[in-house]
Design goal:
By secondary structure, this protein is an alpha/beta fold. Helices cover about 45% and strands about 15% of the residues. It has seven helices and six strands; from the N terminus they run H-H-H-E-E-E-H-E-H-E-H-E-H. Bound molecules: zinc ion (ZN). The site of zinc ion has 8 residues, from loops.
């Protein structure tokens, strides 16, 4: 009953975050009904993602102009304080923090928080990368801010990271009160996130 092409589309899109099989099917049918040029726009937009690569300092995927350095525009920006590092789960959380215009440090992208309260091996690698950067370039960071979502698993990971990085920074802080418990950094409004950033502890 469901055309093979829609099935293929659903297989690919239902793997994406926040999209289930029903939504994927709806998208597939919607696009099919829009016709060739609308489909091509989506094809081109998806294909353009190939141009993004992870920054070798913060692991944020971005369009990296200087292939020799492999640093994103935040890590290579002379005005950003490399001694203050905010650890975030994903790029969209970083964008929300940037949007508050209240943070002038750099970031470390941790990757998606697992639902079993442990750090994945990929996350440990990234933290080790930060540790060696701090050790080799700074001695100690001025501050490491844990900007993970105030959820059970975000809290568990934050305590593990605090332990892991305890010798890497003069202070390790977390975003302050005001963020709704169980909420998502990405969806917090500027004012809430900005004041959580100012009231970090
Ligand atoms: Zn970077």
């Amino acid at each position: 009953m469901i055309p093979e092409h829609i099935k293929q589309f659903v297989d690919a899109f239902a793997r994406l975050p926040s999209i289930g099989p029903r939504q994927a099917a709806r998208l597939g049918y919607y696009l099919a009904n829009q016709g060739t040029s609308a489909i091509q726009d989506v094809v081109d937009a998806v294909a353009s993602l190939h141009h993004l690569t992870p920054c070798q300092r913060c692991f944020r995927v971005s369009h990296i102009a200087d292939k020799k350095q492999n640093l994103c525009d935040i890590c290579s920006h002379p005005g950003r304080n490399q001694k203050i590092v905010a650890i975030v789960e994903k790029e969209t959380d970083l964008l929300s923090l940037e949007h508050t215009k209240k943070f002038n440090g750099r970031y470390l992208l941790l990757g998606e928080i697992s639902r079993d309260g442990i750090l994945t091996s990929a996350q440990k690698l990234r933290l080790n990368h930060l540790k060696s950067f701090v050790k080799n370039e700074l001695g100690q960071a001025e501050e490491i801010i844990l900007a993970l979502a105030p959820t059970t698993y975000g809290d568990m990971d934050s305590s593990l990271i605090m332990d892991e990085l305890k010798n890497s920074a003069i202070v390790i802080t977390r975003l302050g009160r005001g963020l709704p418990t169980g909420g998502d950094i990405e969806f917090a409004d500027d004012e809430t996130l900005g004041s959580a950033l100012e009231q970090r502890r």
